[in-house]
Amino acid sequence: MRLVLLGAPGSGKGTQAARLREHLQVPHISTGDLLRAAVRAGTPLGLQAKAVMESGGLVSDEIVLGMLEERLTAGDTGNGFILDGYPRNLAQANALDTLLARLHQPVDVAVQLDVDTELLIGRLAGRAQVEGRADDTPEAVRNRLKIYDEATAPVVEFYRQSGRLVHLDGVGTMDEVFQRIVEALAPTPDLG
Ligand code: AP5
Q1: Which of 161-165, 167-171, 187-191 has the lowest mean pLDDT?
Q2: 28 CB within 6 A, ligand 1
Q3: Class of the 2-23+76-185 domain?
């Protein structure tokens, strides 16, 4: 299964992708994780991305697409993948469809996790205390949420219009949300 996970910062994409990786036995590809690894490694790409990420902004479409193409052609996506953090704007959504058409691996479904803003801010503040992620500062979180509303929310409509969207409540325990996703992805029984 080729799955895209959509949702605002803190909506649980990374948490649920890690569980779905075990359930579906396909790789979890997170553009945020790929970028953070590049920053840690101090690669030229990482050096370019660091300040933008810390401010909560979006890294350039060109850089992220190049990185994603390299990952998607690594040879382990034959049975599918879970994409987390991409696409983040309409240009990326179109670029992804073009890339995956070329690879003969079109997206089957996009799952949108819906969580209200106050809860998102609470979750990210909690993570800031535990993990100290550089972009979980109040200012960067505000910026990430604003960019999500302006640039990423239209991507949900993009998948709705092409009949590939599953919209789910992302509030509840991690187990409850996981169960909702699994049920939504299960094939409809043939009643015929
Ligand atoms: P990225 O790493 O993708 O960050 P994000 O989208 O802001 O998402 P988060 O990781 O903050 O949240 P999440 O939805 O994964 O939630 P999580 O499971 O972690 O991107 C980081 C940056 O990289 C971007 O800002 C940008 O600069 C750059 N970037 C990445 N992709 C890009 C792209 N395509 N184009 C351009 N730039 C790009 O959960 C959050 C917290 O909540 C955790 O502490 C978790 O334990 C907790 N939690 C999760 N679920 C629950 C639950 N059900 N109940 C209670 N707590 C929960």
Answers
A1: 187-191
A2: no
A3: alpha beta
